[in-house]
Amino acid sequence: MDVMDETHDSNLKSWVNIDENSDFPIQNIPFGIYSPKEGGDLHVATAIGNYVLDLAYLDEAGIFEGTEVEGTEVFHEPTLNAFMSMGRKAWKDARKVISQILSENNGTLRDNKELKELALIPMKHAEMEFPVDIGDYTDFYSSKEHASNVGTIFRGPENALMPNWLHLPIAYHGRASSVVLDGADIVRPKGQTKAPDAKDPSFGESKRMDFELEMGLFIGAGNRLGEPVPVDDAEDHIFGMALVNDWSARDIQTWEYQPLGPFLAKNFATTLSPWIITLEALEPFRCKGPKQDPEPLEYLRNNKNSTFDINLGIYLKSEKMDSYELISSSNYNYLYWDMNQQIAHHTITGCNLRTGDLLASGTISGPEKDNRGSMLELTWGWSESIKLSNGEERIALENGDTVMLRGWCQGDGYRVGFGECRGKLLPSA
């Protein structure tokens, strides 16, 4: 990653009125896909305060003249894939131009009444669409605290971590077709389960529905088949990050996961937040991750700080509640295996990552009880209920429950946020 530039200035202000607690100040400049609620084409956009800024109209007006996106019409595409494939220079140049025209002393857009009315749309009049055509989806298992908690629950503290866990980033191949956008309802899945005292399995709806607090990264420029990505070059392939809720049917998972891991327990839904936050926006919040002991093999040895101070929260709202309640908080920098190591390991065989591929972090838990990133951990294997402020209790998610994930980096007088990642659990079909 390059050093920070003028787009990271904490004193930078926009002529757009932005609340101090907004996820989308001028220092953020995320990318997403939207359509007008009254109907119209899907375009690439950024968010600024409570507005969506249509980048296709800006491109038509010549705002991106002299950059690599000029004349490409990538902002007219119904997904971000074309823009993502162009590489880091194109992403950075576009970010700089957007930052300049939104800056408080720049009248290029501010004073162009016709263009401003066309391109700057209140969020309440915009419909966010799925941002990326996802080809492949890999879900990692990179939190030491999460892996230790789960292992302790099922195998005891002496066998909490499997022998390979401290040597490589564990992962499985997920289902890209069932990744859904923020706000989509989640239908309770059915499958086989087997009670510990039962002779045979039974079929029915899952009774142990869970969430998993995760972050996802999107591949921009991929690598060729047969050419691994060195760990120190991995960030050149990352376009940005989003919130991910990896919904889990724990009772189905318990019965099916050996020896090949989760399948039906995970394939029914994964929720994604609509805005992709670029690594450039996260640069001021770069930090050092946990100490790794034993030292990883050479291909996994990362020579720079490759994680970020991203605050994360899990919020729950039942049908009897008027507002969301925070039930757990965590931080992205708790992850033992960072994103660079995940990519290096993923490609060490020569596996080719492609534009639009999604790599999720795995559940992000921290050292304290209120840092746990799943209901499985918060209830310690369904033995301790979660008590909500209205008197309700939860061992597992119930129909009508809505889970919301949030994430943000706190700057000096501003925050770079990820928006919301919500899903409501509905009864089985």
Number of helices: 10
Structure summary, number of beta strands = 26
Share of helix, binned: 10-25%
The CATH class of the largest domain is identified as Alpha Beta
Radius of gyration, in Å, reads 22 Å
Q: Which consecutive residue ranges, at least 5 long each, have pLDDT under 50?
A: none
Secondary structure category = alpha+beta
Shape estimate: globular
Describe this structure in words.
It is built from ten helices and 26 strands. By secondary structure, the protein is of the alpha+beta class. The radius of gyration is 22 Å and the shape is globular. The strands form seven sheets. Strands 6, 7, 8, 13, 14, 16, 17 and 22 form an eight-stranded mixed sheet that branches. The chain has a five-stranded antiparallel sheet with strand order 4-3-2-1-5. A five-stranded mixed sheet has the order 9-26-25-20-21, with no helix packed on it. It folds into two domains: 6-129, Roll (SH3 type barrels); 137-426, Fumarylacetoacetate hydrolase, domain 2 (Alpha-Beta Complex), CATH 3.90.850. The chain has helices at 55-60, 81-84, 88-102, 107-110, 113-119, 144-155, 250-256, 279-282, 339-347, 375-378, and strands at 32-36, 43-48, 51-54, 120-122, 126-129, 137-140, 171-173, 179-181, 186-187, 190-193, 202-205, 209-210, 213-219, 238-245, 248-249, 270-272, 277-278, 286-287, 307-308, 311-317, 325-331, 358-360, 386-387, 393-394, 402-410, 415-426.
